């Protein structure tokens, strides 16, 4: 492997960037910024933490936290109301039969989230949502995912708190070890989705899509199961300077699924799927052009990455797309905008290198 094709280095801890007044205004315009009865800081005031194990008794990265008895009723009512805001715009009348079953805390990673399990008292159906430290990078990542991917996302911000809904699916690392060779899945469909996911991540500059940062959603269909890969961690939106950090294909954690894709796709088919996803992204961008334009206008002026990382990435993108326009970009927001412009120019022209043909050389 050459230096250019080598997998990206492990992620250094990224600082959290504050939500600017301009971004806050954008979020309020689209009902993403709301008054919340419980903040992230309030959640930190727990009294005890008990290590959480999985169904097989193995340790997880989570601890179940316990709050003071005289505070739990008010706290849990506030969490139920937050869930109502996420799901039904705050209509608490349809949420009275729900109860908070458990709150977990994870000290691993940048967002150090709280995970809240909420249960329907009538049928024991459960759902989750998360409270995290607000970070402008993550907010841009969530909103770009909502606008440019096939997936819709609900989230709310308030002051220094970010609330996210749960993204259901099989964690990528579990899928690779336990599902990749499942005969019920079409290898071509799996490979096709990996190409599309790789392209989405690269064009909108979402980094660090290692296997544990995305999930795989399997949907039964009348002719075999359909597969979709969904990002679930948006912390590394447009922060890193290295080009390959935004291409899931280059992470060693994804090597097994990449080899699998290479076994079941040839270069022309991979190019076809790549171009399909580019076209779909542009169609989504056109449908949401006013909202996307407002978001990128805020992102352009937001210093969510050091200048040296912006310079490194713009040079890499200019070489990749063979477009000097990238060299005029002074921020990560400008690079995202120019990336979309580049694929718009490319539509109707012969596709360049296949996204999988250069893998594991």
Write a structural description.
The structure is a single chain. By secondary structure, the protein is an alpha+beta fold. Helix 9 packs across helix 11. The protein has helices at 21-29, 40-43, 69-88, 136-148, 172-178, 187-203, 255-264, 267-287, 289-300, 307-321, 332-346; strands at residues 48-53, 59-66, 98-106, 114-120, 126-133, 155-158, 161-165, 170-171, 214-219, 226-231. The strands form two sheets. The protein has a seven-stranded antiparallel β-sheet with strand order 1-2-3-4-5-7-6. A three-stranded antiparallel β-sheet has the order 8-9-10. The chain folds into two domains: 31-165, no CATH class; 170-346, Phosphatidylinositol 3-kinase Catalytic Subunit, Chain A, Domain 5. The chain is globular. Residues 1-7 and 351-355 have low confidence and may be disordered. Helices cover 40% and strands 17% of the residues.
